[in-house]
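Input chain follows. Return C-alpha cells only.
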Amino acid sequence: MSTKDKILKVALELFAAQGVKATSLSQIAKKVGIKKPSIYNHFKSKDEIVTQMYDYYRTEAVKKNPLKISEVETLIEELSAKEVLSKIVNSYELLNADKTYRLFWKFIHSEKFHDANAYEIVCRETELVFKTTKLVFGTLAAKGKITGENIHGRAVAFTYGLRSLFIEKLMHNSAGNKSVMIDLRIEQLIDFAII
C-alpha cells in the first residue's frame, strides 16, 4: 500500500471516529508512521484528503461492482422496467456493500451538516446518481418500457427517494438492526417509478 493510500485509510478511520475538525494532520501522520510535513507531499489540506478519499473509494467500489453503466442499455432491451430498476438498485447496494465505502458514507453524512466539503461531496454523488437515473428512465421510455411522461420529475423522485432510503439503511444496519421495512420501501419506490 502506498503512503498516499495509507494516509487516506488512516484519515478515514480518524475522521469517522472523531470528525474532521477534531482530527489533526499530526494525528494522521503519527498513525501512518510519517512526519506531518510528509503529508503535504500528497495533500494540501484535510479538505483535499476528504475530496480525494471520495474519488478513491468511489472508484474502488465501482471497479468491484458487477453491473457496468455500459451494460444498462442491453438490460433495458432484455428485461422489464421493474427488473432493470431492481438490478440497478442491487448494483447500488453492492457499491455500498464495501465496508470501507460504507464507513466513508457514514462519516460524510454525519459531517455534511457542518462541513462544506462533506456537503459538496454528498451533492456531487447525488447529481451523479440523478444523471444516470434520468438517462435510464429516458432509455426505458424510448424503448416503450415506461411512459415518457415527466421523466425528469420521476428521476428526481427516484434518486432522492433511493438516496434517502440507502442512508436510512446504512444507519439502520450500522446499529445492527434489520432493514426489512426499508427494503419494502425500496420495492414500493421501484413500483412507483414505473407507473
